[in-house]
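Annex B.
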Amino acid sequence: MSSDTTEIIETDAGPARITWHQAKKARLVLAVSHGAGGGIEARDLKALATVLPAHGVTVARVEQPWRVAGKKLAPAPKTLDVGWRGIWPALAGPGLPVVSGGRSAGARVACRTAAELGAHAVLALSFPLHPPGKPEKSRAGELLGSGVPTLVVQGGNDPFGKPEEFPAGSYELVEVPYGDHGFAVPKRAEISQDEAVALITDAVVEWTGSLG
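Hydrolase: predicted structure tokens.
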């Protein structure tokens, strides 16, 4: 993998940061942002940045303006969408199809803005189908409304929505057995943490390879 480069992008929500992980012969850009309480050092985002460039996918890990500003909590969804719109021209800059993605709150942003921004597809990691313990507050509409090919990667034990809670739809869903919202698996699980992460990267490699 070539050396990582970072750039600051001015958006209407403040400066955002992109860390680029370039593929030698890229055919896609996969842009992924973080959740509402974490950053781009999340295990799944780091793993994708390490693995995918060897498969012709340049990975752009995106830090929303609130993270760049050093704040602890994410702003309202509308503000997150503003930040994502602001970095899109930089993501599309290489002239390749852009897969819009993210984990948790970042997955919601990707779904909400995909059609408007012309995303090639959506990668939704740990999609927060509902707040923990409140299945009646479903966000399924955002997922079902992405309007583009969508892959959901969901922990089998995610309190924000277990795989079996997801509604029928035209998206694909890959389960990470025993995984929680951060894809952590307990020590007693039948798969190791490394195997859980490999499940994620293998699924995304296969899926991005299938995108026309």
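Helices lie at 43-51, 65-68, 77-92, 105-117, 140-144, 193-210. The chain is about 30% helix and 25% strand. Further annotation is deferred to the next reporting cycle.
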